[in-house]
Amino acid sequence: MTDSPPIKAGALLSIDLDALCDNWRSLRARLPPGAGCAAVVKADAYGLGAERVAPALYRAGCRDFFVAHVNEGIALRPTLPADASIHVLHGPHPGDERECVRHRLVPVLNSLQQLKAWQTLARDLDTVLPAILQVDTGMARLGLGPEDFDGLVSDSEALRGIALKFVMSHLASAEDQGSPVNALQLKRFREVLAHLPGVRGSLANSSGIFLGDDYHFDLVRPGAALYGVAPVAGQPNPMRPVIRLQGKVLQTRHIAAGTSVGYAHTWTAQRPSHIATVAVGYADGYLRSLSNRGIASCDGVPLPLIGNISMDTLIVDITDTPEGRIAEGGLLDLANPWHGVDAIAARAGTIGYEILTSLGQRYARHYVGDGE
Ligand SMILES: *Cc1c(COP(=O)(O)O)cnc(C)c1O
User: Fold this and answer.
1) Do 191 and 43 lie in a common domain?
2) Is there a single domain that holds both residue 211 and residue 251?
3) Which of 27, 37, 40, 354 has most ligand 1 atoms within 8 Å of its beta carbon, as the pocket-test mutant?
4) φ, ψ dihedrals at 342, nearest 5°
């Protein structure tokens, strides 16, 4: 338990903007001179609050931001100075092109249709519009496929009206350094660039940065690693942890051996036990798959979650903490630098990304530092 300020919410989510910005700087430090380091702040900066995260990264020196949807870009625009570029990974849906121009969003064009619509608008406005072109090199998710791309490069007028900032692609298996898919995608991406002389390239996400210089090109697009997620599977995490989650204790009680706990009685005390009910549940993104698997802690002592997680509460076995240490109104750690998003994800059967983006809207949020 910690002596944090009293909160009315069920938990306190602390977000360390200094650690976030250190992570951005340490990723940038891995790049060759001339290569830029963007920041992916889609999904509300992976759940951590884009309107706080993006300006902090801007102060650290970041100028290129990526969101997924046009409406995310519109919301982000007023939080950033005019010289920040906001790129929209999904590009505009038909009819949204003018909104992009109005809010100075740079679309990632993922299909010939999106390219054509952007060119039509450029012609109507009698201007040249900036864009990124995405080419699929082996993920089969977004971007021009090989036929579309071949057709494009054989037509000298194909990019008329477009100021092509970058051509980009996305890696499917970058966190697995042993995967042959990485080298295959790199080879295809180089072929793509060879057809577009003078155009800058962007391939790597967080994990891609750790595949080495060959993958860096002119702009890297980290997201998860900024927020503390380990970029390389099976290796120590070089990133600083960014979040701490502390749940508020609602009640404690002593129970006799043989007492069952929570919905469906999936846990039964084997000894006389002391237990605490904490005001965090699956409605807060504390995944129900952590029932009987999750871990809380107090003073660094791990304490097991017992029974099924409810919508608004979970229950922790605090028998091994000194009597009186944990009381109503106190806070128990649910995520901290010693038990971070990747460790929680492993127990929940998912990835750190999902733990972060599930973080609930009911938490009291406390931003630490300012990234300076
Ligand atoms: C989400 C995303 C990223 C960021 O990926 P991380 O693995 O979080 O670093 C980069 N590029 C594209 C196209 C994405 O969709």
Assistant:
1) yes
2) no
3) 40
4) -70, -40
